[in-house]
Amino acid sequence: MAKYKLLILLLLLTINVFAQKKTTTIHILNADKADYDERLGKDVQRLIGNVVMRQDSTYFYSDSAYYNEKTKFFDGFGNVHIKVNDSTDIYSKLLKYNGNTKFAELFHDVVLKDDSTVLKTQYMTYDRVGHLATYPNHGTITRNDKKLVSKKGYYRDDIKVAYFRKDVVGTMPDYKIVSDTLVYDTDNEMMYFYGPTNMYNKENTLFGNYGWYNTATELAYLDQRATLMNKEQSLTADTMYYNKKTGYAKALSDVIIEDTVNKAMIRGELAELWKNIGKCMMTDNLHAIYYEEVDTLFATADTIYLYFDTISNDIQRIKAFYNVRFFRNDIQGKCDSLHYVMADSAVYMRTEPVIWAENSQMSGDSINIIIKERAIDSLLMRPNAFIIQQDSIKGYNQVKGKQITAYFKGNEIDHIFNEGNAETIYWLRDDDTSLIGINFSQSAEMDIKMRNKQIYNIKSYNSIKETLYPEEQLKDNMEYLKGFLWKEDEKPTRDEF
Q1: pTM (whole model) above 0.85
Q2: How many CB atoms lie within 10 A of CB 326?
Q3: Is residue 330 part of a domain?
Q4: Which residue in 49, 72, 305, 372 is a FRET match for 350, CA 20 to 30 A apart?
Q5: Is 177 inside a domain boundary?
């Protein structure tokens, strides 16, 4: 910050306080003709043809000139050339110069050349003491393959720094910069921004209110809310580093990723983007929102990875790790590892996954969710699959097996297929909801039908064992299958997102 402020102060100084004071004497080194014309003034000398004048180490060339030796003022006309030093030359058609203050005004087709830097404008002032060139109404500075245009500008030829103000437009080989205020340190290839700034090409736009850009390394730093965006996605943060050459970005503090195609938003405190390999990582206080047609899905995790196509920018995979939790009005879930593959329209949950849908709880060592037309089509749990459903009045209906597939219709479970050591406990009721008994069933496979969010029919296949107990005949814990664990207190709620 201090460096940036110092640069601006140096540029705005009209007097170089460190400059050594030299004589105001102006020497006439050459003129093809010299005379006095009283019409021009009492002390005004007219110089015509190949005029060469010198003050200190600065030389002035022109086709003709009017010089007042008493006041140290002179005007130069035609092919004006000021040779400031070995590297800086200024050209114009008309010059007005004050030899006392060493201040020059240049008019018409003004060009300042300084090493590889060229400044062009129609009117410019040049303060020899402060080494400061100023243009108040539109100017262009080019350096190698870079071009910057602004309404107002300053250039310090001693420190090789340019200051641009109002309607700043920078053109580089493959991108543009549009800014309110910009400082360009030409020797160090550094640009500093002091107002709303856009850097953009055909693929991306980088926006910030404050920061810098190294044109040699193509590394940018943006502060006070920065955004990197394309047509479909955007990455926004309080602070951002972005290397255009490598495609790497690091975003810090109140980070937001938005995807307009998938209608999703992720919020956190830290994000890293590897654009050239199609990868993005986000962590620290994560919250995600997925705007679906049916409902809105809320999710959180410790860390999320996004994998996308480097050409189309389409997201292909999402991975979430540690304390993964999600909420939608009709379905909730938790696990420690989640993988969403867009091409398969599938979600893979690992490490103690649990899903709640209405009054049902589903779990297993792993859960795979198949999605069709943006809605859940089926749910595969294996091994140690377990479904628990609250009975309409009392107790829990339970389904257990090696592998259970739950099929959905209209975002509700339609039927369940249980294969491999299938077991069920079912609270059997008549039409008036009176309890008939509690049914215990074992078989190799089961097909369970659902109606009104409750089990109403079970078909068992192979090695069938079935017993119906009246409630009064149940012994301690008989109404629970081995491994039963109701986790209602772990179910995500809307309030935590």
Answers
A1: no
A2: 23
A3: no
A4: 372
A5: no
Bigger pLDDT: 375 or 234? 234
Q: Quote the pLDDT of residue 9.
A: 47
| Containing structural domain, residue 383 | 357-485
Report the distance separating Cα 19 and Cα 266, nearest Å. 55
pLDDT above 70 (res 17): no
Name the token pair of 431: 């039409």
For the chain, how long is the longest CA-to-CA vector? 133
The structure tokens 């910030």 sit at: 208
CATH number at residue 449: 2.60.450.10
Going by pLDDT thresholds of 50, 70 and 90, the confidence category of residue 435 is confident
Residue 85 lies in a domain: no
In a domain, 138, yes or no: no
The domain tally of the chain equals: 1
> Mean per-residue pLDDT for 101-130?
95
Q: What is the mean pLDDT of the chain?
A: 89
> Which regions of 84-194 does DSSP assign to beta strands (E)?
88-98, 103-114, 117-127, 132-135, 139-143, 146-150, 152-156, 161-171, 176-185, 190-193
Alpha-carbon span 204 to 248, nearest angstrom: 13
Confidence of residue 465 (pLDDT cuts 50, 70, 90): confident
246: left (phi > 0), else alpha (psi -120 to 50), else beta?
A: alpha
